[in-house]
């Protein structure tokens, strides 16, 4: 009988360190998760949600469609050198969509006039996903010939003459 008791105590002592390790791990686990989540989740006032290029593409298509529907000829209108250009969307350059930071975005779009001239139009937008507004448009190329280029200076992109 004493032998059984000694074996039972030995087995219990053998498993005791393992059980105490499990008991200590559980209270620490939530702390580790909590600390981990502090870095993963933005606090109030932290950076805005990242906007995807798909959202930029959708935003620019939505803008062009809305402006076209509102015009009497159902065309998108852009002013260039005092002329009103009536254009149809040909292509959104998904490879040239970008987030500029601080809620600003850039899109490059090919559009075609009724006379067959192709215009590359640069769009700048601001706002949040689903509520982006176009703040600036400019004719970048006519039939593939650039009117200006882009140059980065101190982290800011600026237009420079292509001549």
The separation of the N and C termini measures 103 Å
The counted number of beta strands is 9
Helical content class:
25-40%
The shape is: elongated
Q: Kindly estimate the percentage of residues that lie in beta strands according to DSSP.
A: 35-45%
Unreliable sequence segments: 18-48
Structure notes:
- This protein is an alpha+beta fold and 163 residues long.
- Helix content is 35%, strand content 40%.
- The chain is built from two helices and nine strands.
- The chain has helices at residues 2-40, 53-70, and strands at residues 76-80, 83-92, 98-101, 104-113, 118-128, 131-142, 145-146, 148-153, 156-161.
- Strands 1, 2, 3, 4, 5, 6 and 7 form a seven-stranded antiparallel beta sheet that branches.
- The radius of gyration is 31 Å and the shape is elongated.
- The termini are far apart.
- The model is unreliable at 18-48 (pLDDT under 50).
Any chance you could write out the topology, listing elements then pairs?
Blueprint: H1 2-40, H2 53-70, E1 76-80, E2 83-92, E3 98-101, E4 104-113, E5 118-128, E6 131-142, E7 145-146, E8 148-153, E9 156-161
Antiparallel strand pairs: 1-2, 2-4, 3-4, 4-5, 5-6, 6-7, 8-9
């Amino acid at each position: 009988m004493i032998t059984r008791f000694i074996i039972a105590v030995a087995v219990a002592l053998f498993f005791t360190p393992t059980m105490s390790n499990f008991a200590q791990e559980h209270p620490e686990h939530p702390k580790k998760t909590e600390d981990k989540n502090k870095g993963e989740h933005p606090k109030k006032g932290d950076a805005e949600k990242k906007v995807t290029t798909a959202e930029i593409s959708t935003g620019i298509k939505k803008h062009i469609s809305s402006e076209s529907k509102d015009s009497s000829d159902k065309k998108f209108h852009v002013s260039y050198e005092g002329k009103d250009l009536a254009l149809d969307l040909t292509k959104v350059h998904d490879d040239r969509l970008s987030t500029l930071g601080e809620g600003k975005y850039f899109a490059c779009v090919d559009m075609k006039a009724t006379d067959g001239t192709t215009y590359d139009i640069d769009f700048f937008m601001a706002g949040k996903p689903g509520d982006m507004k176009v703040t600036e448009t400019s004719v970048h190329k006519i039939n593939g010939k650039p009117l200006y280029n882009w140059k980065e200076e101190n982290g800011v992109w600026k237009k420079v003459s292509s001549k």
